[in-house]
Design a protein that fits this description.
Layout lengths: L11 H4 L2 H8 L6 H10 L3 H11 L6 H13 L3 H13 L19 H13 L7 E5 L7 E7 L4 E6 L4 E5 L5 E6 H4 L3 E7 L5 E7 L9 E7 L5 E7 L8 E6 L5 E5 L4 E5 L7 E5 L7 E4 L4 E5 L4 E5 L5 E3 L11 E7 L2 E6 L7 E8 L4 E10 L10 E4 L2 E5 L23 E6 L2
Antiparallel strand pairs: 1-24, 2-3, 3-4, 4-5, 6-7, 7-8, 8-9, 10-11, 11-12, 12-13, 14-15, 15-16, 16-17, 18-19, 19-20, 20-21, 22-23, 23-24
């Protein structure tokens, strides 16, 4: 999920690594990224480079590399800067380097001009999405969405209103579950169980004394009755249950972004228990049930976990694409579909074809890119061969105290759909 820690924002300086910073802070108050950001903001480019080299051990997120390239340029290390810009251009990113004054020392350089052309070539719009439905509540701030194929119903969760609504395919919506009655807070990732008998939601709080509390809540479909809930408090550290997947066997796996953990609730309902660790702000999660593997997106990229052995590895993008910044992640017919942040407003919907034997991404297909009305696209739900996804969560309006800034500027949430078949 896009919901980021303190505060929820899409301001560029915080969007890219506020999530990653949170994961590091849990281990080190003086985290590598803290120092990198301080050096970058203060224009202490030598320190920025030193910190950036350390941070590269944890992530190769494109916008981080872009910032590091700027540091190299300002420090007069032009070859290093151009090497990074070349890598980014080949991975398909499209930053407007020609407008970034941080690279002015390279204006007129032939390599820089060549890369500038490559970035421009990458800046093509692919617009395959059409409207699915519009929700008549500008203050909803939706983050999670799920689909019940049996009753042909969508469920949409609210960050601001602490509730889940139920919507028809035409967009007629009504309340399904309220946090005030069931005890949940911000609603994040959601999934309908494979048998369409229940809705599972991730919830978290970042407010006051319960900042760092998280829970998994299971509701009966269609009644909306709370079946059970699992709460983890903040006594041993902050938690942020972000997204989940439910297998046909009844097992639930979910990401804990602040703790860097994937948790499990087994088919008997026991748990939650830590299942896998060592992630940098794990976010989207998907399962290939036939091959018994989990896919977990974090700021390093996309990890694969063997459900039989618990062995895990990071999918290699082979320098041809980037797999960081994936929010919603879905398995569909042998490929992964992701809603992905580039580190700017140019978010995209992508499909990654993978080869598990080679542990790599074999091909990337861009399904949607560069819509002018994108405002924090977050998650989606697959229904009838389409990915239906939240295109404008407007999550940057929600602050850490859960107040909403400039509510008068918010617009109605739009659910878009893009064809997968």
């Amino acid at each position: 999920m896009r919901a980021l820690p303190f505060p929820l924002t899409r301001t560029l300086s915080l969007l890219l690594f506020s999530a990653f910073t949170s994961a590091l802070k849990a281990q080190d108050p003086h985290s590598e990224f803290d120092r990198f950001t301080e050096a970058f903001t203060a224009r202490k480019y030598g320190q920025c480079i030193v910190m950036g080299k350390e941070l590269q051990k944890h992530t190769d997120h494109p916008y981080f590399l872009y910032q590091l390239a700027e540091c190299y340029c300002q420090a007069g290390k032009f070859s290093k800067c151009l090497d990074l810009l070349g890598k980014l251009a080949k991975r398909g990113v499209s930053y407007k380097i020609e407008e970034n004054r941080g690279f002015w020392l390279l204006y007129g350089n032939q390599r820089f001009s060549d890369y500038e052309e490559m970035f421009i070539e990458n800046r093509f719009a692919i617009d395959k999405s059409v409207s699915s439905f519009v929700i008549n509540d500008s203050l909803l701030l939706p983050e999670g969405i799920a689909y019940d194929s049996l009753h042909q119903t969508f469920y949409v969760g609210s960050l601001a209103r602490h509730k889940v609504i139920r919507c028809s395919a035409e967009g007629s919506c009504s309340d399904f579950a309220l946090g005030s009655q069931s005890g949940f807070w911000m609603v994040l990732g959601m999934k309908v169980s494979p048998d369409c008998q229940s809705l599972w939601i991730c919830s978290a709080s970042e407010k006051d004394s319960i900042n760092g509390y998280s829970g998994i809540f299971q509701f009966e479909i269609p009644s909306g009755k709370l079946i059970r809930k699992y709460i983890v408090d903040n006594r041993n550290g902050a938690h942020f249950f972000n997204d989940l997947v439910v297998t046909p066997q009844g097992e639930a796996y979910f990401t804990d972004s602040k703790a860097g953990i994937v948790w499990q609730i087994n088919a008997a309902g026991n748990g939650p228990e830590p299942y896998a660790k060592g992630f940098s702000y794990p976010n989207g999660i998907a399962v290939d049930n036939a091959k018994k593997v989990l896919f977990v997106a974090d700021f390093q990229g996309i990890h694969v976990i063997d459900l039989l052995t618990r062995n895990q590895f990071l999918l290699n993008h082979q320098g041809k694409t980037f797999t960081n910044g994936v929010d919603g992640l879905y398995w569909y017919k042998g490929a992964l579909v992701g809603i992905q942040a580039t580190g700017k407003q140019d978010d995209r919907v992508v499909r990654f074809f993978y080869n598990l034997k080679k542990k790599s991404i074999s091909r990337t297909e861009i399904l949607q890119s560069y819509r002018s009305d994108f405002n924090g696209p977050t998650t989606g739900a697959i229904a009838n061969g389409y990915l239906h996804y939240i295109s404008n969560s407007q999550a940057d309006s929600l602050q850490s105290n859960e107040s909403v800034t400039h509510p008068e500027k918010l617009v109605k949430p739009v659910i878009l759909k893009v064809k997968l078949d």
